[in-house]
Fold this protein.
Amino acid sequence: MRQKRGIIMSKKMTSGYKKIIALGMAAVILTVTVIGGTFAWTDYRQHKTNEFKATGKIYDVTLIEEFIPKDDWKVTDACIEKEVRVKNMLNPDDAKSGPVLVRLTFKEYMEIAAQTGYVYTPDRYAVGEDGAFIGSLTEPTEQWLANQGYPNHEYAQIKDAISGVTAYFIKTKAGDINGQYGKYIVTDTGVPAGAQPVIQGSVRADVTSTAAHIAGSNDECNYPAHNLASMTGDLTLPIREFVTWDNGAAVIPLSALQEGQTGVWVYNDTDVSDTYVYWVGLLRPGQTTADAFESVGLIKQPDGTFYYAIHVDMEAISPDELPTWTSIPASVKAALEAAIKA
């Protein structure tokens, strides 16, 4: 005998730059899925570039994302790499090329469509000693039934929704070997209920709005923004039950920022209402920041079809525009002012 996806078969048989969008599924069958969950990726490579002129200089900055696509996202998978950084695109040898100040906002959205429950056969069907169903891809003969230890038994052709295999399975009777322990076959994994946002009040962007690649012009920009202290460690944020982030060693809390320290991303752990992540230092022509994001992991499989998105907004300004960042923490502002004067 050989086993195929939980069914014992006889020898003669044949047998989803600025964002990451994820479509996932648990215990549900669609046209191209496998049981246990799928995770499809779409990358819009939306590098938002801000160009402007001020004090005789030119500025050109790009938000860059790199990630490794992953299908069939499950809790047993390693974290998915997603690298986010910012680059000053201008030529450092051009006297007109100007340095910039940069900050990011990370946003996310998740929705889950819970299952209505499995549908089972009314009868039990024979299983082997290992618990797998005994089945035949071709209509059983009396000899085959006898060889399995179930002579003079009825059988039925059924599609097992868990394995995806359609075969003939043997109905058990009281007193059979394993008869009392025959197993019901799952014929349907249930229909997803309407998708509900994990963070109440948030709304998934419609398909047409995702084509707009200007910050503030589409619904994705309205996804909930969180202070990074909540994004990575606050279990009171509902999404943290399912998804975890690794922003990397170059991302530190404001409370850890040392005097004179530059070349790091800083989030304000002293004021959770401040959702910006600031690059501490001038980003000069030709330079690229350290990663502000490195990977994302699924730590709990949602019970149903799910959709998850990470959205990143970038804001870049010339140094003389620093006063327009009115909510910036004092220590970050002081560090940027020192970098400007250096």
